[in-house]
Amino acid sequence: MPALIMDIPAVTGTALGSDVSFVYHKEKDDGTLILSWDGGEDHIHDKDVIGVINDPRGGRENEVQPQLILRVVTSQSSPEITKMRFAFEPLPVTNLPQNYLEAHVITKPPEHLYVNPNEDGSRNLHIVVSTRSGVGEAQQYYDDVLSEALAAIDLNRDTYQLHTTESEKSITELAKKVLLPRANGGIAQTVLLLSGDGGIVDTVNALLLSSRTEKYLKPTIGLISMGTGNAMANSTGLNRDATQGLSRIFRGTPQNLPTFKAHFSPGSVFLTDEARRTEPLPSESGHGIVHGVVVCSWALHASLVADSDTTEYRKYGAQRFQMAAKELMAPDDGSDPHVYNGSITLYKSDDRGVEYAEDIPETKTSYIVATLVSNFEERLLISPDSKPLDGQLRILRFGDISGADVMRLMGMALRGGGHEHDEMAYYAPINGLKIQFDEPDARWRRVCVDGKIIRVEEGGWVEVRRGHEDIVDLIA
After folding, report:
1. How far apart are CA 15 and CA 21, in angstroms?
2. Is the pLDDT of residue 317 over 90?
3. What average pLDDT score do residues 429-454 get?
4. Are 232 and 238 in contact, with CB atoms under 8 Å apart?
């Protein structure tokens, strides 16, 4: 076996009980552990690794402490549908290279996973499997990866409460009936959500729309990204590897999750069940209220999210957004894409921190989002200046421009940015905004808040403001 690979000295150790040599090579954010033995070689990529722990089975007396490389192996379950299969494959090793350990070792158990149970024995570590998120991968990931990875750090099935969603209301009900009372009692709780952004949004809304005591202790959320766009995971680095966020749950730290608050004019309603049903919004001072953590949008973005939220579209994963966008930008009847009408006011702060209002003179809009995150999808960099969990709302807006120019700007966002500097785009930090709609057709008065669709009454409005209440922590 070679003593040097790319001028990096090899380290002799064992894997699966057999002698091997290790070489760890890292470039930028990517690294590879190369295992070599007489007659063979294997590669373990950083993107697949949850972390390295001491093997709980130990070793024989006077032997080197054995360790486990915890990793997730991913494969595509079907060439027709973008559904993946995940497997947990721990690899027992000894004498890993020091630079590999420095990059991956879990020096102490993550405290947020070892929360004390209640006096009655009920658990405060919750795992929520969202069965409808994305293309339906959450249950398989829990069965074959998460449960096994937790067991590897001595968190067996009796150390947590497992919840499987049965409806769109399941996570909201869990937050109201379980998380809220315990948080109000000052009890530490951690929730591992196998879901998309919607799981976080449901939790945040349930908690923010309820009364909280002075003893309120923020629950900690760990996100295993199982959604379609996974904006939160892609913007906070949870999806930087192929573990779906599990490496961050094992090695990250809880940080405050910023929010925003959207106020709606009376008569605004949720559209549910593929827009076949409506539901009233929670209200405050006569206005509808919806909290968010990712984006509030109107025009093209809201329309494509709404139009693509069907059972048929969802099986295509994130591709559903592009499919809906093409239909909106090139209608079947050959007409031009719709340009949305409404007055927009921005709320900004001057150099002294004093807020002022700024009206956008143009009333026609093709695309507008107010967002707390950078990426709506893995490659779709909407807000290049946004930093993970920085709490700053930013607006991106295109005015009355052609469908070709909209697609050109979105293409730039897909290629890593530059659209924000284009003369046809407006991009800036804001404290909030208000849209006064001037659309007779209800189809063009749909607003998206983190995937939820709200229909505003004719002549109605929406106002978005940064949130100032600490409600949950996100492990990042």
Report:
1. 9
2. no
3. 97
4. yes
Spatial separation of the C-alpha atoms in residues 282 and 258, rounded to whole Å = 20
Whose CA is closest to 218, among 258, 261, 248, 246? 258
Say if residue 261's pLDDT is above 90: yes
Q: Tell me how far apart the alpha carbons of residues 10 and 123 are, in angstroms, rounded to a whole number.
A: 46
How many Cβ atoms from other residues are within 10 Å of residue 446's Cβ?
22
If you search the block for the tokens 């849209």, which residue do you land on?
435
> Cα(270)–Cα(474) distance, rounded to whole angstroms?
26
| pLDDT score for 333 | 74
Q: Tell me the DSSP string of 296-311.
A: EEEEHHHHHHHHT-SH
Measured distance CA(287)–CA(273) in Å, rounded: 23
Question: Which residue pairs, CB below 8 angstroms and at least 24 apart, start in 168-171?
Answer: 168/132, 168/272, 170/128, 170/130, 171/128, 171/130, 171/195, 171/198, 171/199, 171/202, 171/203, 171/206
**Contact, 178 vs 203, CB < 8 A?**
no
Is-contact 365 344, C-beta < 8 A? yes
Question: Is residue 208 a contact partner of residue 259, using CB atoms and an 8 Å limit?
Answer: yes
Q: Residues 293, 201: contact at Cβ < 8 Å?
A: yes
Ordered strands of the 190-195 beta sheet: 161-164, 125-129, 190-195, 220-225, 473-475, 254-256
Model's pTM, two decimal places?
Answer: 0.92
Burial class (CB in 10 A: 0-12, 13-18, 19+), 24: buried
Mean residue pLDDT across the chain? 93
Name every residue whose Cβ is closer than 8 Å to that of residue 360 and which is 6 or more positions away in sequence: 343, 344, 345, 346, 397, 426
Q: Which helix H or strand E contains 11, and what residues bound it?
A: strand 11-15
Tell me the mean pLDDT in the region 160-182.
97
**Distance between CA 252 and CA 475 in Å, rounded?**
6
Q: What is the DSSP code (8-state) at residue 198?
A: H
pLDDT tens figures, 319-376: 777 777 777 877 777 777 899 999 999 999 999 999 999 999 999 999 999 999 999 9
The predicted-structure confidence for 383-398, as pLDDT tens digits, reads as follows 999 999 999 999 999 9
What are the DSSP calls for 415-445, one per residue? Answer: TT--GGGSTTEEEEEESEEEEEE--SSGGGG
Give the H/E segment covering residue 202: helix 197-208
**Which of 82, 125, 123 lies closest to 319, judged by CA?**
82
